[in-house]
Design a protein that fits this description.
alpha/beta; Rossmann fold; six-stranded mixed sheet; 6 helices; 9 strands; binds adenosine-5'-triphosphate; ABC_transporter-like_CS; ABC transporter ATP-binding protein; P-loop_NTPase
Length: 227
């Protein structure tokens, strides 16, 4: 059953824009993310992809409209256990090793006992076991994004929101990251929403949302198998 994780209705988001002016970014947006969904959120730079992801994950609130998380609970209960973010810019803690970075959300959830074991398990799936004791500064961009993805998946969150996770990677590194993510999530109920400029990334996901001039268009794509 495709259970609703996020329901957004008539969402508008505007920002102050100089004296007495506002910048409307999102206008009357309706959307739903259900269990197991794989959504590509596309749109030109500045179209509002990050803004929408932040609203869907409860990091930001709409100016008007309503949003709820029927299967997840209240906004303040979403993170880190139920909703996980992968940010556009590097977000690993520089003083923590790879395995410590990935274990961190489990520690925040008071799951100290098996945090390191779980972190190592997910790092193995991302082909990163040999980098466990490295610091973020010792990683390539592609390795760092794999660690960030591993950290998002380690808690068993039911919704992963990834903001251009491949945006700074070359195409073969980007493809490898996406292959790993889709294979690891294959058959899982966890939903994935990826904001991307990259049409090859978007083509790998079965639902496509595009933002243009504040409006969200929904295109359902034929299901594609991960490589
Ligand atoms: N906190 C803020 N205050 C004011 N304006 C903002 C704020 N956050 C976003 N904006 C504006 O909202 C618009 C949409 O920004 P957003 O980052 O959501 O776009 P995007 O599609 O994710 O862009 P990119 O692909 O370049 O990351 C931009 O014009 C941006 O300047």
């Amino acid at each position: 059953m495709n259970e609703p994780l996020v329901l957004a209705s008539d969402i508008c988001r505007s920002f102050p824009n100089g004296k007495n002016a506002v910048l409307p970014v999102l206008t009357d947006i309706d959307c739903r993310v259900g269990t197991g969904d794989r959504v590509a959120l596309v749109g030109v730079s500045g179209s509002g992809k990050t803004t929408l992801l932040h609203i869907l994950g409860g990091l930001d609130e709409p100016t008007s409209g309503s949003i709820s998380w029927p299967a997840l609970g209240a906004r303040e209960e979403l993170r880190p256990g139920k909703v996980a973010f992968v940010f556009q810019t590097p977000s690993l803690f520089p003083a923590l090793t790879v395995v410590q970075n990935v274990a961190l959300p489990l520690l925040l959830m008071d799951k100290q006992n098996d945090a390191t074991t779980k972190a190592r398990e997910i790092l193995a799936k991302f082909e990163l076991l040999d980098l466990c004791e490295k610091l973020p500064e010792e990683l390539s961009g592609g390795q760092a994004q794999r660690v960030a993805m591993a950290r998002a998946l380690v808690t068993g969150a039911r919704l992963i929101l990834a903001d251009e996770p491949t945006g700074q990677l070359d195409s073969s590194t980007a493809t490898h990251l996406l292959d790993l993510v889709l294979n690891i999530m294959d058959g899982s109920d966890t939903a994935l929403v990826i904001a991307t400029h990259d049409e090859t990334v978007a083509a790998r996901l079965n639902t496509r949302w595009s933002i243009d001039a504040g409006q969200l268009r929904h295109d359902v794509m034929p299901t594609r198998k991960s490589a």
